[in-house]
Amino acid sequence: MTTPLRRAPLVQEVAAALIDQIGSGAIGADGWLPPERSLAAALGVSRNVLREAIRQLQSQGMLESRHGVGVRVVKIPYKPIADAIAHAVPALAERLLELTQIRLMIEPEVARLAARNPSAELIADLTAAQEGLAGSSDAAQAAEFDLTFHRRLAVAANNRTLLLLLNSLAEVGRESRQVTLDKFGIQSAYAQHQEILAHVQAGNPDAAALAMRVNLEATERDVGRLREEKL
Fold first, then answer.
1. CB pairs under 8 A, 24+ apart, for 205-210?
2. I want to staple 156 with a disulfide (CB 3.0 to 4.6 A). Which of 69, 114, 141, 148 is the partner?
3. Cα-based torsion angle of the residue sequence 210, 214, 219, 221 in order, rounded to the nearest 10 degrees
4. Helix (H, G, I), strand (E, B), or coil: what is residue 25?
5. DSSP 69
6. What is the Cα–Cα distance from 44 to 60, expressed in whole angstroms?
């Protein structure tokens, strides 16, 4: 009777570890989990525990098993939430404005948390995202690098619930970024990201939070202009 009680938390811990590693790109970057044997060894658990954790994530729509092929990472596991938001707020400009208001409530604190103990890996990832943004050939590509920058900060905040919440808004966020970057260009976003990056790298939480607020307030103004144009 005691084994299941000890095992259940371990399964949950492994599921959480998989979410973290998928979110950071450590695994699943190619769209697939590593082979079961090597993944279980890397996590330091039995294959049975790993299978239960994978089944848990499959039930949440985050993974999908393909018989004879492997386990696929579902890139947009929160599509129903994006669809529900689109149904509840059908006007695009209104939807983007409400999303930006939510981000203003959350993301300055994300930047504050990320700046408390920035790792060399975090700074390298943020720098790479900025290089990608600067070299983007179109708004869709730029939006992906913009998303990567903000998502990497969320991973660094080291709060799984927060990361899941922000990931649940990622599809709507992609839509917002494509529209604003296409309309207003990448220069302002790039410069604002550089400010955030500089303060995170310096380990200055208050300045990082303020820089993020400046970035999102600029987005809010851009979306407001789109609403006036009746997008």
1. 205/111, 205/112, 205/113, 205/115, 205/116, 206/112, 207/115, 208/111, 208/112, 208/114, 208/115, 209/108, 209/109, 209/111, 209/112, 209/115, 210/108
2. 114
3. 130
4. coil
5. T
6. 23
How many other CB atoms are found less than 10 A from the CB of residue 2? 6
Digit-coded pLDDT (tens) for 19-69: 888 877 788 877 889 999 999 999 999 999 999 999 988 877 788 888 777
Which residue reads 């018989």 in tokens? 67
Query: What's the token pair of residue 120?
Result: 């060399």
Contacts of 4 by beta carbon, 8 Å cutoff, 6+ apart: none
Distance CA 46, CA 161 (A): 26
- Say if residues 211 and 112 touch (Cβ distance below 8 Å): no
* Domain residue limits, the chain: 2-73, 79-228
Is CATH 1.10.10.10 what the domain over 2-73 is classified as, yes or no? yes
Among positive and negative, which fits the CA dihedral 144, 146, 148, 150? negative
Q: Mean pLDDT over all residues of the chain?
A: 86
Give the distance from CA 217 to its chain's centroid.
20
Helix intervals (H) in the chain = 2-24, 36-43, 47-59, 79-88, 92-114, 120-134, 139-156, 160-168, 170-184, 187-201, 205-228
- Which residue has better confidence, 72 or 113? 113
- CA geometry: angle 38, 19, 196, nearest 5 deg: 120
Class for the domain spanning 79-228:
mainly alpha
